[in-house]
Amino acid sequence: MVDCRLKKGSPANYFIIEAVQCWMNKEGKTETLSLLRGMSIFYYDAWIYGSSLELRKRNVHHDRIYDICPAVIYPRMKVIPELTRNGFKGAFYDICPSSFFMTLLTDNRMEILYKAGQMNLFLRFLERKYGIDKYWTYVKICLRHDYVIHDADLWLDYVDMLIENKLDARNPHYLCPLNVEEAHDWVMGKCKKKYSEKDEKDYIAAKSRFFNLSFADGNIMVRVLESLSDFYKEGKLLHHCVFSNAYYKREDSLIMSATVDGRRMETVEFSLSRMEVCQCRGKSNQLSAYHDRILNLVRDNI
Fold it and tell me: What's the pLDDT tens digit per position in 153-185?
């Protein structure tokens, strides 16, 4: 950790404090040494500088504390041979180094994606690892046909709709379209436009506690979709699959609509378990001119 002390009339005084060490062997097993932390609900890095580096327990709640994503990484480094063997060439792609190394050492499927240059898919599965089991069969077909997936979320939605419509999702003709956006729109048009009363009740039971949640920044308003009719209108007006692909059934997702001067602009999928935005898409799955402002508004208020 780098800190700076400033005093009028004196030069800036910079100093470095080592807060965390993450040790990892070739099997991906890790041990963490760190300073003590002060109790805080707002900051992960409330390090007690006078404490010593000691072994600390890791669990799912502490991963964000110790898996630090630095603003700058010193480029001259030595890594174990197994990382070089598994494809690491020095770039981190804005991924936390410890998570990146652990993934390359422990998951051969992620290693395959990384070596095959499927970086968009690699980054998506790194964020949401539960998806790789579901889609791996289809990913392997793409790899065999040298088909590179440039928009992982759009392609995965497309695969879901192929399965939903009982199309041959293992056929490269469907699975590896020349234009995934056109293929996505085509199969979306075949999806059923009806939903059951039970679906409506299930959605209200699961998400009604969030229905009053909304926040604004000038002419931008973000609010939670409160009914399946809202999902249908959102998908119809923005020409994407938030309704046809039944996003209202995703237990971990909170779906919000971002409007500008009352016009629907983008749809936001927010993960309740990770407390972060999964995706934010505008008309025809493109990004609007307000994309960054919408993302910042959501992140600043949750």
Answer: 889 989 988 998 889 999 999 999 999 989 988
Report how far residue 97's alpha carbon sits from residue 30's, in angstroms, rounded to the nearest whole number.
13
Residue written as tokens 């970086």?
119
Domains of the chain, residue spans:
2-106, 114-190, 197-301
Task: Report the C-alpha gap between 102 and 26 in whole angstroms.
Answer: 9
d(CA 284, CA 133): 28
User: To 10 degrees, the CA torsion angle through 9, 14, 19, 20?
Assistant: 160
Backbone angles phi, psi at 142, to 5 degrees: -60, -40
237 and 249 in contact (C-beta within 8 Å)? no
Answer whether 0.85 is exceeded by the pTM.
Answer: no
pLDDT in tens, 47-74: 888 899 999 887 655 567 787 888 788 8
* Predicted confidence (pLDDT) per residue in 97-138, tens digit: 988 999 999 999 999 999 999 999 999 998 876 689 999 999
> According to the CATH classification, is domain 197-301 in 3.40.630?
yes
